[in-house]
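Quick illustration for those who missed Monday's session on complexes.
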Amino acid sequence: MRTLLKNGRILDPSQDLDIIGSLLMEDDQIVDYGDIGEPDADETYDCTGLWITPGLVDMHVHLREPGSEHKETIVSGTQAAAAGGYTTICCMPNTRPPLDNPALVDFILDRAASPEAGGVFVAPVGALTKGMKGHELSDLAALKKAGIVAASDEEFPIQNAMVMTQAMEFCVQLDLPIMAHCEDTSLTEGGSMNEGAMSAMLGLKGIPRSAEEIAVMRNCILALHTGCQLHIMRVSTWGAVEMIRQAKFLGAPVTCEICPLHFSFTDENVGEFDTRFKILPPLRTQVDIDLIVQALNDGTIDCIASDHSPHASHEVDVPFEEAPFGTAQLESAVALTLTNLTHKGILSPLETIRKLSTKPAEVLRLDAGTLRPGDTPVAQVAVIDPNLEWVFDKHKTFSKSKNTPVHGMTLKGKVMLTFCGSEIYRDALFSDERYSIA
Ligand SMILES: [Zn+2]
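Prediction with zinc ion bound:
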């Protein structure tokens, strides 16, 4: 079986490659790309005007299984990932029970590899402490052997600096990155949105930016002194970004990500207590966005991750303070990024794909994020129409969760095809007359 993606814009940040050309896959591997003429193929897709990129890599996804299958399952979540252009995703450990033992890692890997799943690689992130309680380290050596690629306590970050130091020292020995949600919870208890004029007006208890910044600073300092590889999850304030910039300047092994909602919306979007805008850390202000886009442009912010956090409709259809944090993002993250960063000239197409694919693969040392044959176990490719304008419709998504502020928005840019060994997603619009398929 030979598949030819013809005449597209090939963007491969792993080789700083941005050329017009074609890509040929044979069986489950990429065999050639670039100026390769028109070799014989069983299937030929005309990719004129489209991007051909490495399959995208999402380092921050909540699949909710085991324990909360009413929100999402490994099957529905991986299908949503395929539709989002992703071929590799990392799933977070805050399941029920938490991902703190090797048997659960086996379970997730088995489910992800099942034929009904979406066909993407799932790289689990293990719980840093037992039960994510912040006291005693999990058996990280056994978890790593079972296949985790990083450790994190996600929404229950370690508060005690001594425990965090020990965790980092141990992870240095294991050569295991720590992914840290940064929050000093003594400052955030009962808070449900950004602390500021908007929270005061709505009479909601705020989450101060200092809670994030104190934790970012502490974790960066500990990473600097222990040498532990630290990845800071979804930064949201300009102050946190400045501290990361400083930590990198000092030589700390620190990287960070942002979630598209944090450069697309502000706390003003909460409006009349709209729970679709309730995320953690909370949506901040336009000043934060202005400085965040600079940090994306200059490379201080390394990666873009969806923080796909699905919830069932009945769980979010409650008073704002009672609603859980998080929304479904796998199927809109790329389009939000293209709409709000690439088309506004903040990121070039190549840098866009670097933050969505190559860099996250590099940070977590995943065999992904490149078109180079042999560097990934199977061909991982996404085809994106960067200029297609479309309206996001939550009723047409694969995720079980329909809770997203992106519903009804007009976006520019859409994933058309995803390959992971074989074709795992084809957009309904792709078979349109827009793209002649031979
Ligand atoms: Zn998360």
